[in-house]
């Protein structure tokens, strides 16, 4: 049974935590239950954490090229007490928001833990969790919601503590996804699944600090569909004609989800997967349409 409980401390544009039941059942049906799991574009790592906490994966590998996100995950798994202390002692004010924005932008000197905390603070106080977005409520705090609307310190502390307890089962990377995928056979056992949720093809530039050009998306597609890539994989994307063409050699399906980045809208997405997987199509989350 799955609940709506979230395990990640981060809000993330296009976060795929609702995909955890689908990924879990796909692993089970494909004989990968209890194996390793890799997310080359981890972001908030919502799927990875749920798979780990529910026992579907015994070890998760989370990678993000964004140094701010990497600093956060390194702090959660290696320096949780220092991170928790900063969370507890830092006031939630515009003055602090300006300070941590400078740290995030690398415009102010900071330790690793301070950089990790800056990621958490900005993620929870910015609109839709977008690190390069604006503060909730605006700088004058005249909006209906204030900058502390998504920063519940008690809840976030509990999530960080729980992740820290499983730190030995989490490996964190800060690598280019293509390079990591090219060598993942070196550290992933055969009983593993790779789930990729790359930056959106169409809107990635507006949502992420790291986004892809057409050639970057194409290089990943070619690698996954090549004979030299030996691990089962699933990739999800926004439904763009260019993406469908790139993955025309693979099985795929389309679906829709609700998004809340900036505004609510119904987005169309596509999923492609390696032929050695048994796909649990019925478990792909469905949007709740307004009456």
From TrEMBL:
Its EC number is 2.1.1.72. SUPFAM superfamilies: S-adenosyl-L-methionine-dependent methyltransferases. It comes from the Bacteria. It is an enzyme of class 2 (transferase). GO terms for molecular function: methyltransferase activity. Pfam families: MethyltransfD12 (PF02086). One of its GO terms (biological process) is methylation. Keywords: Methyltransferase, S-adenosyl-L-methionine, Transferase. Gene3D superfamilies: Adenine-specific Methyltransferase, Domain 2, Vaccinia Virus protein VP39. It catalyses: a 2'-deoxyadenosine in DNA + S-adenosyl-L-methionine = an N(6)-methyl-2'-deoxyadenosine in DNA + S-adenosyl-L-homocysteine + H(+). Belongs to the N(4)/N(6)-methyltransferase family. This is site-specific DNA-methyltransferase (adenine-specific). It comes from Ideonella margarita.
